[in-house]
Write the structure tokens for this entry.
Amino acid sequence: MTIEPEHPPDDVQQHLRDVQELLARQKVVENLVHRQDMPRHALVEGLLHKQHLAELQNRLDEFHPADIAYVLESLPLDDRLVVWNLVKAERDGEILLEVSDAVRESLIETMDSHELKAAAESLDADELADLAPDLPPEVFEDVLKSLDSEAREQLRAAMSYPEDTVGARMEFDMVTVREDVSLEVVLRYLRRFDKLPDHTDKLFVVDREDHLKGLLTLESLLTNDPEDEVAEVMRTETVISFEPDDDADEAAQAFERYDLVSAPVIDKEGRVVGRLTVTDVVDYIREESEQEILSKAGLKEEEDIFASVWDSVKNRWAWLALNMVTAIIASRVIGLFEDSISQLVALAALMPIVAGIGGNSGNQTITMIVRAIAMGQVEQSALKRLLRKELGVALVNGVVWGGFLGLMAWWLYASWQLGAVMTSAMTLNLLLSACAGVLIPMIRTRMGKDPALGGSVMITALTDSGGFFIFLGLATIFLL
Amino acid sequence: MTIEPEHPPDDVQQHLRDVQELLARQKVVENLVHRQDMPRHALVEGLLHKQHLAELQNRLDEFHPADIAYVLESLPLDDRLVVWNLVKAERDGEILLEVSDAVRESLIETMDSHELKAAAESLDADELADLAPDLPPEVFEDVLKSLDSEAREQLRAAMSYPEDTVGARMEFDMVTVREDVSLEVVLRYLRRFDKLPDHTDKLFVVDREDHLKGLLTLESLLTNDPEDEVAEVMRTETVISFEPDDDADEAAQAFERYDLVSAPVIDKEGRVVGRLTVTDVVDYIREESEQEILSKAGLKEEEDIFASVWDSVKNRWAWLALNMVTAIIASRVIGLFEDSISQLVALAALMPIVAGIGGNSGNQTITMIVRAIAMGQVEQSALKRLLRKELGVALVNGVVWGGFLGLMAWWLYASWQLGAVMTSAMTLNLLLSACAGVLIPMIRTRMGKDPALGGSVMITALTDSGGFFIFLGLATIFLL
């Protein structure tokens, strides 16, 4: 492809279709030959087979590693392994970095320790740190031995930071310059590079001990007079940097807020130890939001859509078990009122509405509060104000929707008393769900825990059992 | 702040606390004076008040617009407006761009048309396009008249594209160069700029009619010999570009996949018309994932946490109403079996478990399928394979969890027949939820609709009503 610009999204889908077609053609050949089991055909098959695979291999060689990763993720296991075996060994490492965890596991399982070692050695220290947890320990030991001492130190550093810190996400490649040279010297220095580290939009100005003195953006390097000294044009105010222990989430928010492409990572003494780039941040944001969506739906981790039934069951059972416990509790609450239900069977039909709407409303509240806490917008001092507001919303909803349902119950079962109980129970359960929606995340935050985790299950459990209890309790007191 | 690097995340929280303290101090003064209503105090109050406000104003002047936006979002309405009035008028525009939609509305409501016009006129065409929908029509008309013809054309163009396309997100600022000049000439040309457009990591090489010929990265500009011609070092292969009509989501995936910082946007004839940057993409990714999380919880849009009760009710009622309709349908399904329940009241206690677990399991399936479809990993041809796998998972879960619940029902109500009905109903409802979890998003995709939308409500409705029907139906047939 020369001048004509490509459209990558269509492209990668086209890539996938090409691969699928080549795989399908190969299978047709295999089937043909298997049906007519003659030696001559075996020969033809061998040739044709090789021809298709060679064509496929040529196509794969042209693909970007991210595109190969995409193709691998989109293929069922058997086809996936055919493609994986055609990929040039020296590209294995970068492709393993790009695929999802589940697919990476399926690929690593098929590689022997020699191949794994070769793949791992093709990577930078920070990339290796990402791959390390998936490698067999003996392979990792071998790789560690093959590194020079600087890279080994970097790898150890990268792996020593918890997953959600800046340290675990930073890169070690960067360009540093001194402040007492002219821009001309910097320009000449850069010309000696074949290639700059990815996403270099600024150079780090440091002293002899690597202390950060300022930032020289490529923009100021390019728009200022080459005779100027670095010290004159470098940025020293509002230099945004991070420490390795900083929370990756806060760094991501800063990248978004200040539209950064790269930022230095410094240690406690102000020495530059690494660099954080927008790629790391984009990956982080995507991972976090995926994780949030998956965990809200009760999936432990991203699932290879072509995973075995057994792997899928393992990914999903914990959530189902948890929900079953809360469902059994709610069921036992109903069990307390079996006498009442047998006297007035309408209660059985109406009770799920009270519980369900309470759960929905509580989830709205908790989602909003959790988001606001994550953005740092909620001080503990705002508790009363938020509680007052959410109770207000619950009261309005209780009167409006509860009133409507009360009228419906009255009309269906010709009992205004039943209607009144319905309206009261709805309102009380909505007030309960509002309190819980505000208090659960606020209390979890005060206890230093993640406000998002498990909030949805807790609130649903509470509004289910609570809704049944309130409705059946009120009915038992006032109707029977 | 000079050399010492800042830590922006702590910083912005500190900013917020500073502002809150200054606001609180001012209120103390106001209260003091109001209590002792004497003219002399009024004078003092006036001075102190002014002094605190002046101090606050000075602090605000130092803040990054994104930080001011953050502070505004974190303050209740009355404090928010105090701060907003202290912000320098020429910064209004950029701050309005940064705040969330709900907060923007609350700010715009307090501005007169003159202020709004001034704020709008400080923005670029592409920024103005984002703000335009929130402006009163007469203000927008005025602003349009004040633009030069090029900017007006750009604004019209940006506003003519649907929200989720590249065209609506692109910027118009960019640097283009010719291919027949030397890098030295390019370097001299750049020195004439005070400032490059944000996130310029590459220059676009174009001919006289603005047709894209290639890309000149700053990297190759800096690492190659200045004597080289642009044509020799520019990239012409795998030039990734977009058209204005392209889906923003696909562009975002391409930016992530190929780690882009900026990319040209070209029209059908290959002429460069704009530029897409990673900032736009980061914003888009964040917005989309926010939107997904909010809509899953039934919130129409991001909510100002300090919104009035009434605004919150409006943001949430549609989802509650929809859920109420499905709850009423489920309730009527139960109503069909009131005779059975009155004969065997244990059914009322057990039925919510069948419905609830079915809903949870269905949501797991649909979340996984929707994600895979969004990533383009699911061809319609995979339908059978996915269905087979999900039915397998459902069967395992049905036998394991359904078996457990059946034993529990047998133990609680001393009836093995009830236990058998429980196990069968659980299994059937899980199979139903698996079918629905695969088919709903696949069919919606085939119909050209968003597979994510409303799937969760549909599947919950189906597994609720379906679960009640299956369980109570089986019980009626086999137990009574």
Remarks:
- The radius of gyration of chain B is 31 Å.
- Residues 1-9, 32-38 of chain B have pLDDT under 50 and may be disordered.
- Chain B is about 70% helix and 5% strand.
